[in-house]
# Entry
Amino acid sequence: MVAVEKKIDKAEYEKRLNKITQIFEGLVTHADEQATYRCPYKNRFDHCTAKFGCRNQRKIDEGTGLLCVGDDKLDYRSAWEIDDPDQAAASHGTGTITCEGKVYQLTPGKTVFDYADDLAVQVPTSCFRTGQCHECIVEIKRGMDALQPPNEAEAFLRDNYRLACQAIVVDVDTDIEFTPLRRTPRILTHTGTNDNETLELNPRVNHRDGVVYYNDEPIDRYRGHLYGLAIDIGTTTVVANLVDLETGKVVSVSSFENPQRFGGSDIMNRISYDGEFHGELRRSLIAALNSEIMDMCDRHDFVRQEIYEIVVAGNTTMRDIFFKQDVQSGGQKPYKSTIEHEYRDGIRSTTALVEKTRRLGIRANPKAMVVSLPLIASHVGADVAADLVSVDIPSTDEIIMLVDVGTNTEVVVGNMKRMVAASCPAGPAFEGGGIEYGMAAYPGAIESLKWEGHQFSYDTIDSETPQGLCGSGLISLLAELRRNDLMSPKGVFANRKQRIMSVLPEHGITFSRDDASNLAQAKAANYCGQYIVLRHFGCTPEDITRLFLAGGFANYVDLRDAVDIGFLAPVPEANVVKIGNAAVAGATAVLLSEKKRAGIEALVKNIEHIELETTPDFFDVFVEGCQFKPMFFDRT
# Structure
């Protein structure tokens, strides 16, 4: 028999060769990173072999030895660097650098990160200031021209954002002001719904005979704790509950400003940014979350390997960025995510997502799973699904309404027979974006005002010196201006020629016609969502038996103020229930209960979604909503 020579497919051969080359390149890169960063005293079992103390050492309950919980980001290269003697001898300039009210005099050659150290301001980093981790992003509020131009490591940043470790001060005679992107806002731990309710306890994680099981699959030895994380990823803030899966109790609550602000303050800008610099937004969020996890470990004396499941809620874009999904389709008509398209095409059986912590780069047990709640439709995301878990959906014909106020406001109206939902792109105005003296809810933010005689009295968060107006303060200001005829419904001041009004002259805080215009458009989005969904369902505010107000922002708003300017539908005040951060409460309930998990999966499939922009009279409703006056419903 004559052997037949098999012809080689050159294209296929080249394809496989390229794949092998990529694999070896990855191995080399990984080996290089390990050689550069991995602690030489850490063995392959993640045990510490050092004979000296280290903050990353943890005692092992069983047996002898120490566990290393370091993040493999040690870098000793900076130890060989020395200060430039000429720089050290340089004289001070006349300019100053300011952050969080602290001031320091400028000297040449130092980075913004160096000054953060001088000011005792915490700026995150895990690469020891080499520009690799992209965690130390700061917003330069003043003095951008006093800094050396951005370098290659900062190519992904726009506008007035810089890496603190790369931003070198070159003009010491100009005043500079900066703010870290990762800050801690006022934390809302109250949820209003489950505070007095015993949560059903049936988690996927349990242990017996010294072994930890996930869905009856052995995944680890029992180390002393079974923890889970419930996370709500908002456009502006991130909240995380550390939950004891054995008792159902929330052990710790963490909250921080979403560090993705450098990519834009609203959803559409984030989508556009992720298309241009894919992965940077996710990278900043994961770094911030990992930092919080390690802080939790230190505060409560446990190791990250004791976190066995993570449940995530969040709007569609924030959730999908977190899970490494392409979010570009969410920014184009019909504004649906890739996940939703695949679900509607029958490719997926659910819009919920499941992934391993190791693949997402989260510091937890290597075999832990990350699970998201399902989406409802379009931009009505997993956070609204979590809200619905946290409230008691009536089993009668009573009509309830849910309004989750944020950069995107979501509205749900209905009962067990029928539910209608919509999303309103409100934007960041009521969170301080685009408002001259607007700010998030930090100490010093004005949260309420009263017009008394010829001046305003006010209250600030933590009773500190006024720095600006947060959302509740802006709504309060608008309501007071209207009640006292200081401003018309269309945002025109009593003195028609006046463009800027002094609110607190002693603190230099003003309010302008432009501010009023930005707030009017943001309010109109909220107005449209509530008005159109109520009308579509066929009811009025008087028919609502319970209005659930979700979100930290809504929790602090004065109801009368909000109704008077048309920010909220005029539901009888006795029927309004503030449920705080319902999204993280719902995520916590799902983390602890298989029944809740299955229940929300079934519920979201029957919710009717409407696109507000497709409503024939949408523009007319929006224009009406731009006026600062109560929402009106004609029963006829």
